Amino acid sequence: PAPSGETEYFLAHYGCECGAETVATHPSCPSAGRFGRNLRRQVAAMKYRQRLPYRKIAEALRREYGLDVSAAALLALVTGTAHALRPEYDAIAERVRNAPILNADETSAPMDGRNWWTWTFSAGADSLLVCAPSRGERVILQTLGPEFAGVIVCDGWKPYASFTKNIQRCW
Questions:
Q1: Each residue of 40-55: pLDDT tens digit?
Q2: What is the pTM of this model?
Q3: Virtual CA dihedral for 115, 166, 144, 128, nearest 10 degrees?
Q4: In which order are the strands placed within the sheet that holds 114-123?
């Protein structure tokens, strides 16, 4: 039997005398690689919500599920997940850019010994996170674009007022 949380798929393979091969598919079975959606979600959450290094994620997966996976494989898994989610990220960014009212804020986020910033742009149910090495106006311009016409609800940080006059201060 498969370990807890693991799903095994038996897919039929048919070979032809000409050398061609036909393989059955299943909608829940990954089209490439050996890891499915649930593990991808869990690894991404461990990396970005719990801020664990890949070696600690590997240790946790080994301890909890008996899954032996290297830190390099986990990096590739997270990178692949990011690429797969890019179209949804771009769709959220487009909705945020066109929002009539946008809440924005930024907070420091140390990364590899340097101070970076996590910017949050939220409109309705959409929240766009942007990580940047700067806390300046350029990040706002690159994220929202020069055509942004909405109102930004924000604190008193100067780059917002430099970017637009359509400001509502949060109290």
A1: 899 999 998 888 999 9
A2: 0.70
A3: 70
A4: 126-132, 114-123, 101-111, 151-154, 167-169
